[in-house]
Design brief:
8 strands; 4-stranded mixed β-sheet; two-stranded antiparallel sheet
Length: 285
């Protein structure tokens, strides 16, 4: 997978607060139930951890900034995206949002741009305090995606995903899939669990939406068409964050009644459905 060198990136769609760290009380995560729940939620790519985050003490400390930190303001072209991970994320966001803007317009719906907040360790979100422990998520309160790039290393080191650029693309596209649901008015914060729950259906639909974008990514002008190796990388990432696989590795057993995102096989199935059809109206788990 590579970006077209001459593609023009728009870093204004990313709010880069990396290097800014919140001191004081902050988000305390250690042992016990809360830590386990947040860890699992993060690795399952949840869209709204409000019920967890808002139950924790608000951060009342100071914010410090590292002036030497890189900034996505330097991400200008596809050539930059081929060299730097943060610029790659900018390129994915530009492509994803261009696709959904054009695609939804064909169906009479206006797509509203959503900012991605890149942060380090911890930052404040409309849904509460976002931490590296919570992983990528979409917050419908402020309409933003939150991402600490360290998550991708965690996905590889802790849960055995192959990693790589297209695994990153899958994660970003999945979160923007929740924003698309928000735009369409179908996003719900139903907390019921189980294979047939609304939560699982929404997560699988977001996987499917990610596959739809993948099918059309090259048409946006930012990216070259994904290879079979790229698709395999995305499918591997989808498998790594299946409920059954997460439960086996964290609890030693599978408990379908607790599922919130779907099994590894289901996540791969719906990403494949989106990619094979290229039609978001077919994303109906």
């Amino acid at each position: 997978m590579s970006f077209n060198d001459n593609a023009k990136l728009d870093p204004s769609e990313v709010q880069d607060v990396r290097g800014s760290r919140m001191g004081g009380g902050g988000l305390a995560i250690g042992g016990g139930g809360i830590g386990i729940v947040i860890l699992i939620a993060s690795l399952l790519l949840g869209f709204d951890p409000t019920q967890i985050l808002n139950a924790l003490p608000a951060d009342t400390g100071t914010v410090t900034t590292d002036p030497s930190a890189q900034s996505v303001a330097d991400c200008k072209t596809g050539a930059d995206a081929n060299k730097r991970e943060d610029c790659r994320i900018v390129g994915y966001i530009d492509s994803i949002q261009q696709f959904w803007k054009d695609e939804l317009a064909k169906h009479g719906t206006t797509y509203t741009l959503a900012t991605t907040v890149l942060y380090t360790d911890q930052t404040q979100a409309g849904c509460g305090t976002a931490s590296a422990q919570t992983g990528p998520f979409y917050c419908p309160v402020d309409g933003k995606v939150y991402l600490d790039l360290a998550f991708f290393d965690q996905l590889h080191s802790q849960f055995g995903a192959q990693g790589g650029p297209w695994a990153e693309a899958y994660v970003v596209a999945h979160e923007y899939g929740h924003h698309v649901q928000d735009v369409l008015g179908t996003l719900s914060n139903d907390q019921r669990t189980g294979p047939g729950s609304l939560s699982v259906k929404q997560e699988l639909q977001a996987d499917c939406f990610a596959g739809v974008w993948t099918k059309h990514a090259a048409e946006t002008g930012y990216l070259q068409a994904p290879t079979q190796a790229d698709i395999s990388s995305a499918l591997d990432a989808a498998s790594a964050v299946g409920d059954d696989r997460i439960q086996k590795e964290t609890q030693g057993k599978v408990a379908p009644e607790q599922w919130t995102h779907g099994s590894s096989a289901q996540r791969q199935q719906w990403y494949t459905t989106g990619y094979s059809t290229g039609d978001y109206t077919r994303c109906t788990p």
